[in-house]
Amino acid sequence: MDLYTFTEELEKEIRKQEQDILEIDREVIRKNNGVCLDAMILRGENRSIAPAIYPQQLFSLYQQGMSIEALARQAAGSFREAFTNPVRELDGFFDDYDRFCDKIYCRLVNRGKNLLLLDELLSEEWMDLAVTYYCRMRTEGRGCGAIQIRRGFPEDWGVDEKRIREDAWRNTMRDYPPFLQPLYQAMQELGGSAPEPAYDTRLFVLSNREKFLGAVSIACPGETEHLAAELGGSFYVIPSSIHECLVLPDDSVHDPEELGEILRSVNSAVVDPQEVLADHVYRYDAEEKRLREC
To answer: How does pLDDT run across 39-54, given as a tens digit for each residue?
Structure first.
């Protein structure tokens, strides 16, 4: 069975299992780095609540042995959960900015790969990348959700863009401040194998303690100067994903072109396309107090 046929059969089975689904719309949803995913939007009587499912992801599970009936049951369950346990915080989202101003944070994305998306989002340039903003919601039983801050939101809230940017940076520094640790420690925390400390203690991970959207730490005010003081001089920044950067002190041994080649190789072979941050490294010059693209 190909993906098209699977999607048609899945929709039939979802409609069969959940009678409260009145419409199933097909849409293309744009994700980070220009990744576009075909989605099925499940709509009921309350059209403001419409969970999305992604057939291509479910098709992978089907190929691994899950039945269409079981996958449709999952989708129908997501629909019922959305209605029985809605995100209460979203009620009146644009009515009172002060309710949400402490939940807006910064993230760092690739500017060149997100030109169309950045036309829609509130953002600011940082080097050749871009800082965007999101409102983080904690939902009971469903972890965290995020709403990207779009260009029209300031007008809807009745505040200016400067206020939102200032709040986002303040919240990020307060709740998810930069956290630097040796690479081997970070890998051990994740339960993976890691080089012994004696092998290379000069490669560090810069993120936040959650290791989620932590690459923006390098753009936090004063962070590069702080790193130079802590590391004892100039250093390279290897943007390994949107979640973290690797930091390597410049000891005149490493070749930035070689570091860039390694980064590009890892990006193409290992990193999820939605999580790639950049394909080149940066160098911070401690004397000039300036970060540059290599």
So the answer is: 999 999 887 678 899 9
- Sign, CA dihedral 277-193-177-290, equals negative
Round to whole Å and give the CA distance between 215 and 202.
19
SS3 204: strand
- Give the other-Cβ count within 10 Å of 23's Cβ: 11
Q: Please count the other Cβ atoms lying within 10 Å of the Cβ belonging to residue 69.
A: 12
The Cα–Cα gap between 106 and 216 comes to 7
| 8 A C-beta contact, residue 284 and residue 234 | yes
Q: pTM of the prediction?
A: 0.84
CA pseudo-torsion sign 67, 73, 75, 78: negative
CB 235 within 8 A of CB 228: yes
- Nearest CA to 217 out of 176, 182, 275, 250 is that of 176
pLDDT in tens, 238-280: 999 999 999 999 988 889 999 999 999 999 999 999 999 999 9
For residue 88, the model assigns a pLDDT of 55
User: Model confidence over 117-169: pLDDT tens digits?
Assistant: 999 999 999 999 999 999 997 655 545 578 899 999 999 999 999 999 999 99
**Alpha helix segments (H runs only) across the chain:** 3-17, 55-63, 68-84, 115-118, 153-157, 161-175, 183-189, 223-231, 256-269
What whole-number distance in Å separates Cα of residue 64 and Cα of residue 170?
Answer: 45
DSSP secondary structure code for residue 150 in this structure: B
Long-range contacts of 180-186 (CB under 8 A, 24+ apart): 180/204, 180/205, 180/206, 180/227, 180/230, 180/247, 181/205, 183/246, 186/211, 186/244
